[in-house]
């Protein structure tokens, strides 16, 4: 029963920096009056638990990792790695840390017999070994050094194994060169399962965190910054690949759909009614507009008269019947203004749905539509939704008869736009299918 809206801040900052700055200033001013959110704390030793808890997305407030005074933290990765020649662990560590061969940084001593003399340990920052005896010697010879004892002398690959080391050594993942298309298919399949190259990221199941992760990995792969905004501007894997080809790219513009309110209502009301529907489709520019004609009589009881608008109506006619035939005064003025917007699609409720039914668009979504004057048979794909028991269900049925390519979905919530998950999914599927 809740409605919410979300936005990517990185996209806002790139496209509307002034508006974003104003928004942040307003939030900053409001902070003193807001309740303090709870803090969930984890000690550094339980960092893996903190990350797991954070990744579930169920927390409220802050997730805090505390570093106790006794927690050893190295200021930077060591600059050198010393150890047996051609040793696989030594070579892997040098590669991971981009370190040189030499003493004073990480000293690798696989077993006690590999320790030629104790001077090898002098000045070490980290002693890496698989021998308890070497670990004991290191504590005596270089007590300031961090001694890490591996269970087996082999390169460490699993996250659990790295966490056992306390997070002091970090493996840096590098994206290897190769075919970008093949790499992208592999990465997306790893993240979300098999993905069609012409399917939008949103339809493939990529949520906000997955898009951020993909943008970061792409940045490392192609050697330039890729943001979530780039993924929205090129919403399919194929379009994203095309953007890397170096060829001139067409200006990216999202499909524009107009949303038309009901009789003696306004754009804010229809925006609230359609909130869960439009949030299910981020690749459409939803344009909510007020009719240019102010209400000529009593408004919807929930709407202040000063903020009420109509697409047509009887002067001083009652709210309940002022829209009914033959009182179509004003439509000849309001309809041309909507047609000038040349939307790709249109969504309307009640009287707004009647106006939408008259527009030339690629698709139409009509909620509880009433019959407008001049409606003729049409082949445009249409989505019809209404309650068979609402007062004017007969008009909803009559409107549907004019459309040969239609989907009809019923509900039991009366003369309203229902927020049922199944209907929202049908709506999203319908619009997505006709966006191409």
What's the CATH first level of the largest domain?
Alpha Beta
Strand order, largest beta sheet: 9-8-10-11-12-13
Beginning-to-end CA distance, first to last residue: 32 Å
Low-confidence stretches: 158-163, 166-177
Which class of secondary structure composition applies to the elements? alpha/beta
Tally the helices: what do you get? 15
Largest sheet: 6 strands, parallel
Number of domains: 4
Task: Please tell me the CATH architecture of the largest domain by its name.
Answer: 3-Layer(aba) Sandwich
Q: What Rg is obtained from the alpha carbons, in whole angstroms?
A: 31 Å
Approximate strand percentage = 5-15%
Mean pLDDT: 83
Corresponding CATH superfamily of the largest domain? Alpha/Beta hydrolase fold, catalytic domain
